[in-house]
Amino acid sequence: MSRLRISLLLLALTTTSVAFSNENNKQLSYSISAVEASEYQDINSHFPIDVLEKILIKSPKEKEYEMFVAQYQVDDERRRAIVYPLPRQHEKETNTIDNKKHHQYRQEKWRFLSAAVKKHTKDSDRFITYWDNAQRLHLFTGRMAVSEQPIEKAFANSEEKLFWQKIGNGFSQQEQLTIFAQCLIGKARDATSCLSQLYTDAGDNYILMSADDMAHIQEISLLAGQGLPLETRLFSTDSDLHGQIKQVREWAREGEGTGSYMLQPIDENFVRAWRIIDPDFEDSLLASLLPFTTAAEKELADFRLVFKSDWGGYLSLYQIIN
User: Fold this and answer.
1) Which residues, at least 6 apart from 82, have a Cβ–Cβ distance to it below 8 Å?
2) The whole model's pTM is what?
3) Positive or negative, the Cα torsion across 272, 114, 89, 85?
4) Under 8 Å CB-to-CB from 89, ≥6 apart: which residues?
5) 194 and 187 Cβ atoms separated by less than 8 Å
């Protein structure tokens, strides 16, 4: 059993209604074990999965979270991807109801995205996205994306580095992820010039965004070398939808809030809201491509929307016009 500081990224990528930041400086324990893939529904991957790993994470409050990583092989190269498998219906586990719903939501959205990618793009096209999205995209569609691995300097302490080096199939020695982070926090109007460092000449270039990219905010901040004008808060889904939206809107305008916000699905009990506290950041590429409320008001001449999932645009795929 290993121990790891709780990070926003770790818990946001697992299945949790509670998220912690590194400021808490607490530790959790985790264990990694192989599970029988036959106990889970087929995730419709492009490549056969050799090993399905379950990472069981226990917080200091004794709450457990699950993360699953699929291992597979392509051309003698071992690959990994974080996935969201659903237990088969006969499995009788009552303590993972939230996990199942969390996984079902994300698995469905990725299935729809994968179908759109296969329909609208070519094998020679380039996809620019965050490393965990890139790994899933390859597993589900066979399409290559950058960056395919995390980068060491994105993590603040040795425990996180060791954990994500294993989960992410090693660290990339290239600077693609750093470039992408810098492009995300830069102005949307300058994005095509910034992103051109990552383009391919062999086909079209696309950018893939996920609401779960917000789990990487601490990484992006470290890679870009600056803090980001974003704040986050959990809201209960106990109230009716209109009441919840009203609460989020009021919070988004409080204090330094600009009123621009987006929602990140967590589970049936909570939703995570993010708000912008600097008006200039509303024009960033990140705030323009993710489902912030001000993004709908913007016309992005350099990006053509190819696919957007329902229920708040959890996944979005844009073709870069250049």
Assistant:
1) 13, 67, 68, 69, 70, 132, 135, 136, 167
2) 0.89
3) negative
4) none
5) no
pLDDT of amino acid 28: 65
Distance (Å, whole) CA 54 – CA 210: 23
Please give the structure tokens belonging to residue 257.
């809030």
Give residue 21's pLDDT. Answer: 35
User: pLDDT over 70 for what percent of the chain?
Assistant: 85
What strands lie across the sheet with 2-5, from one edge to the other? Answer: 2-5, 27-35, 51-58, 64-74, 77-83
86: its two tokens: 């659903």
Cα separation of 129 and 163, whole Å?
Answer: 21
* Tokens of residue 295, six digits: 């993004």
Distance CA 142, CA 123 (A): 8
Q: How many of the other CB atoms lie within 10 Å of CB of 200?
A: 14
d(CA 213, CA 219): 10
Q: What ranges do the domains of the chain cover?
A: 2-320
Q: Quick: pLDDT tens for 207-225.
A: 999 999 999 999 999 999 9
Long-range contact pairs involving 59-64 (C-beta distance under 8 Å, separation at least 24): 59/6, 59/18, 59/20, 59/26, 59/28, 60/6, 60/26, 60/27, 60/28, 63/16, 63/18, 64/95
51's CB contacts (< 8 A; 6+ apart) are: 34, 37, 70, 71
Tokens describing residue 296? 């709908």
What's the pLDDT score for residue 19? 31
The pair of structure tokens assigned to 205 is 């270039």
pLDDT digits (tens, 9 = 90+) for 93-104: 544 445 566 778
Using DSSP bridges, classify how beta strands 205-210 and 126-128 pair: parallel, antiparallel or unpaired. parallel
